[in-house]
């Protein structure tokens, strides 16, 4: 799986960034965020590609690696626009997953057949222990009790009325 991650969106979601943070602290926050992401993903075989906004960047930059995480800056465009381009260019859309809280980016991924996570959903998935494909799903943390005889009788009566 290739995860296409809106970098600043995820940084905000996990509390590393605050709105209006000046550029200088932002430059220091990125490597700490990428270190956290690399550590959290170390037990997973997936490819993480983080895209940062760089509309006002001085020049285009190449994608580079940071401890196994692929990093790029979206020169003269938003990370959302760059991620949508990557989604359109995906040769196997089902193997791509978008990580963003932006609804338009999520919709573009869905239309193309890619998976999608909100930032919080991705963090929850990332921090959960990895499972082998044939492992049974984890039990619900809030199991649903079986219906009581009264509930069952009420449902049965409702269905009889619907049949008419």
The gross shape turns out to be elongated
> What is the mean pLDDT?
87
* Amount of beta strand: 15-25%
H/E series:
EHHEEEHEHEHH
Describe the structure.
- The protein has about 160 residues and is α/β, with parallel strands linked by helices.
- About 45% of the residues lie in helices and about 20% in strands.
- It has a six-stranded mixed sheet, sandwiched between helices.
- The radius of gyration is 21 Å and the shape is elongated.
- The mean pLDDT is about 85.
Main features:
alpha/beta; six-stranded mixed beta sheet; 43% helix; 6 helices; 164 residues; elongated
Blueprint of the fold:
Layout: E1 2-6, H1 7-13, H2 23-41, E2 47-54, E3 64-66, E4 69-75, H3 79-89, E5 96-99, H4 103-112, E6 115-117, H5 119-127, H6 149-163
Parallel strand pairs: 1-2, 1-5, 2-4, 5-6
Antiparallel strand pairs: 3-4
Helix pairs in contact: 3-4
Please give a quick description of this structure.
The chain contains 6 helices and 6 strands. The protein has 164 residues and is an alpha/beta fold.
């Amino acid at each position: 799986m290739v995860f296409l991650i809106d970098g600043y969106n995820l940084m905000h979601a996990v509390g590393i960034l605050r709105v209006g943070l000046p550029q200088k602290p932002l430059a220091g926050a990125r490597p700490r965020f990428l270190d956290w992401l690399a550590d959290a993903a170390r037990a997973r075989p997936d490819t993480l590609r983080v895209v940062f906004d760089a509309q006002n960047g001085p020049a285009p930059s190449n994608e580079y690696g940071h401890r196994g995480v692929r990093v790029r800056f979206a020169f003269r465009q938003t990370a959302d626009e760059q991620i949508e381009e990557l989604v359109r260019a995906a040769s196997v859309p089902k193997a791509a997953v978008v990580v963003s809280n932006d609804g338009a980016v999520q919709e573009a991924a869905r239309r193309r057949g890619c998976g999608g996570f909100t930032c919080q959903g991705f963090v929850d998935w990332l921090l959960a222990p990895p499972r082998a494909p044939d492992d049974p799903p984890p039990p619900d943390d809030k199991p649903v009790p079986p219906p009581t005889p009264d509930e069952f009788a009420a449902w049965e009566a409702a269905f009889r009325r619907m049949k008419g």
